[in-house]
Amino acid sequence: MATQAAPAGRGFHIGRYGRDTVTDRDSAPFRRAVHPESLRPFAFQPITRRNLAHLAVLALACGAVPALADTGSPANALRAFDGAGKPAFSLDDLHGDRRDLKALAGKVTLVHFFATWCEPCVREIASLQRLAIATRDKPLAIIAVDVAEVDLRVRAFFEKLPVDFTVLLDRDRAVSKAWDIAGLPTSFVLDATLTPRFFVEGDLDWSSPDVMAALETLYPAADRPQGETTNNE
Q1: Alpha carbon separation from 4 to 55, 85, 212 (Å, rounded)
Q2: Concatenated DSSP letters for 78-144?
Q3: In angstroms, rounded to a whole number, what is the distance separating the alpha carbons of residues 12 and 203?
Q4: pLDDT digits (tens, 9 = 90+) for 125-181
Q5: HSE value, Cβ hemisphere, 13 Å, CA-based, for 109
Q6: Which of 77, 147, 215, 225 is the 20 to 30 Å CA partner of 111?
Q7: 219-225 contacts: CB < 8 A, separation 24 or more?
Q8: What's the rounded Cα separation, in Å, for the pair 51 and 132?
Q9: At CB < 8 A and 24+ separation, what contacts does 220-226 make?
């Protein structure tokens, strides 16, 4: 079963440099930890043959960056998950109401980890909204888990971009750590028993026909297209 992904960026890694925060590679914590020399005053040095050689290598490297960027990164794909189960959780939604993952047993559940500062995540929120509209009559629940952002920022984001699915706040990253989330966006698809069956690291076009067909294989028999079976049947 092949699934297609949006030809988009890979997202951002959760920073493990300096302090335990979510950062991208342009953030101050990342620069301080990995490139501390970048914060020092620039110092002129004598021009030598060795320095000229270094400058030539640097110029070639800089010239190669646009060429590499033009090729695009490999498409992200929805893959079968064969790891251990993920722990249940309960988190506040945007209105301050507590939501429990266990309450979704009996439905296929898409758990999506994101942040509003993450560009690929923002693209994927729109894709998830299209999926939510297309599957209104299906036993599918979509849960978007915002990682380590201020409540007001997340609320302001969704006031401008309303969605038809639940948004939860993982304020202290307790859930994303428990689920071993190493980068954003990352998503898991759970079956009706809340067992992870698919996952993807990076953004995905959830409204594409192949991805929707993969989700349908997890629906209870009465909600699947006639003649379709799950992998366990």
Answers
A1: 42, 25, 10
A2: -EE--S------EEEETTS-EEEGGGGTTSEEEEEEE-TT-HHHHHHHHHHHHHHHHTTTSSEEEEE
A3: 10
A4: 999 999 999 999 999 999 999 999 999 999 999 999 999 999 999 999 999 999 999
A5: 22
A6: 225
A7: 219/108, 219/138, 219/139, 219/140, 220/106, 220/139, 220/192, 223/138, 223/139
A8: 57
A9: 220/106, 220/139, 220/192, 223/138, 223/139
> CA 45 to CA 138: how far, in whole Å?
67
Tokens of 55: 């400058």
Q: Is the pLDDT of residue 55 over 80?
A: no
Helix (H, G, I), strand (E, B) or coil at 145: strand
Q: Which two tokens stand for residue 227?
A: 């003649």
Give the amino acid at 202.
G
Q: From CA 91, how far away is CA 97, in angstroms rounded?
A: 8
**Count of residues in the chain:** 233
**Do the beta carbons of residue 211 and residue 3 sit within 8 Å?**
yes
3-state secondary structure string, 191-206? CCCCCEEEEEECCCCC
What the block records as the tokens of 52 is: 């000229």
Which residue segments constitute the domains of the chain, with CATH numbers given? 12-71 (no CATH), 79-223 (3.40.30.10)
Q: Tokens 């429990």 belong to which residue?
A: 100
Beta bridge pairs of residue 146:
114, 169
In this predicted model, what pLDDT tens digit does every residue of 66-81 receive, in sequence order? 322 222 234 689 999 9
* Host H or E run for residue 49: helix 49-71
